[in-house]
Amino acid sequence: MACRTPIGQLCKRASQPSTLNFTSKPTAALWRRGSICQSRSFATPVPPVTQNATSSKGPTAMVFMNMGGPSTTDEVGDFLSRLFSDADLIPLGRLQGYLGPLLSKRRTPKITQQYAAIGGGSPIRKWSEYQATEMCKILDEISPETAPHKPYVAFRYANPLTEEMYNKLLEDGFGRGKGGRAVAFTQYPQYSCSTTGSSLNDLWKWRQRLEGKSVDTKSDNDGTINWSVIDRWPVHPGLVEAIAQNIEAKLLEYPEDVRNEVVLLFSAHSLPMSVVNRGDPYPAEVAATVQAVMQRLGHSHAYRLVWQSQVGPSAWLGAQTSDTVTNYIKKGQHNMILIPVAFTSDHIETLYELDEEVIGESGHKDTIKRTESLNGHPVFIRALADIAKAHLDSGMACSKQMGLRCPGCKSERCAESKKFFAGQQLAI
């Protein structure tokens, strides 16, 4: 939203219709039954996994990649500095090294206040670690041949950073002549070069620094970590079902006489039109998620896909979430539900931008609501395990779609990163 939340403004969530060849497509009823069986209790610490497992292919490191967020207000400055320095996310051209630090320094006081307002920090690390750990518990049961599964989290701009995660992998017995399997699992359901692409570029960079530069292809006996990638999953039945269940639960909070007239606003992080016009697949993949959710709901309500977190004077993908809410209020529509469709857990874009700004400043807090984020939703956790299981069974290093660069891409780092992960196929 224009000049509102400088952090949310620049964290774009990305991915695309699932290109993995899933072995099964669970029905909505199956996902609903699964939700009853799952516990929402927080995960307990998992002991390190080393390369001495007895399963045929394990152990397997499951690395959750995301943007991250400062866990405390003291971390905001460093978080913003890394964020504004990332040319994949915020391309500033030749002035990146100058403007990045300048922008982050200017925005730190305001963003620190916003994090203070939502409890003193982002909950994204808590939820990411919980989701990864609970998913691995299920994987150990449904994929014993690749067990034990070890959860890791790698954030792009906050602790634990990709470098920290990679060193932990090495400490736990992966790589350094021992080999081992690791899966980079993006937590952006819809792919964008600015989010998943940036995280994969960073992972490739630290792989080259910590395990040595690689050739285009590799064998399975060079002792380095064998990587594969889950790069998108926007229409997975479990993701769709979890979002739909959250919408249904929120609709029940409205009186029966107005419930059918509630407008559903699916809100995703926007992108600069310069990125969209370069050929980024993100808008199409977000739209695919929305369409799948509405099909699951039987198209029971009117809806729109809107975009939040715009920053600066350049053109961004719209219509903007804040403008949409304001305009509908002017038209007499006061019953609306905001649905975070590209975020897998709460963070500043949901807790502050949507809750405090869009809803809080609307003048209609009783009738404009937001669905719960996915967080620890048991159906969502089961979906993550299903996605991972299908990937492990597929024998694919990455999807074919991931290998296709945007038609307007000029980044050599992107080209080399994609080449590296595709080249891992010989070792999978």
UniProtKB/TrEMBL annotation:
One of its GO terms (molecular function) is ferrochelatase activity. One of its GO terms (cellular component) is mitochondrial inner membrane. Keywords: Heme biosynthesis, Iron, Lyase, Membrane, Mitochondrion, Mitochondrion inner membrane, Porphyrin biosynthesis, Transit peptide. Pathway: Porphyrin-containing compound metabolism; protoheme biosynthesis; protoheme from protoporphyrin-IX: step 1/1. It is found in: Mitochondrion inner membrane. Its EC number is 4.98.1.1. The keyword Membrane applies. It is an enzyme of class 4 (lyase). It catalyses: heme b + 2 H(+) = protoporphyrin IX + Fe(2+). It comes from the Eukaryota. Pfam families: Ferrochelatase (PF00762). InterPro entries: Ferrochelatase, Ferrochelatase_AS, Ferrochelatase_C, Ferrochelatase_N. GO terms for biological process: heme biosynthetic process. It is a peripheral membrane protein. HAMAP family: Ferrochelatase. Catalyzes the ferrous insertion into protoporphyrin IX. Belongs to the ferrochelatase family. This is Ferrochelatase. It comes from Venustampulla echinocandica. The lineage of its organism: Eukaryota, Fungi, Dikarya, Ascomycota, Pezizomycotina.
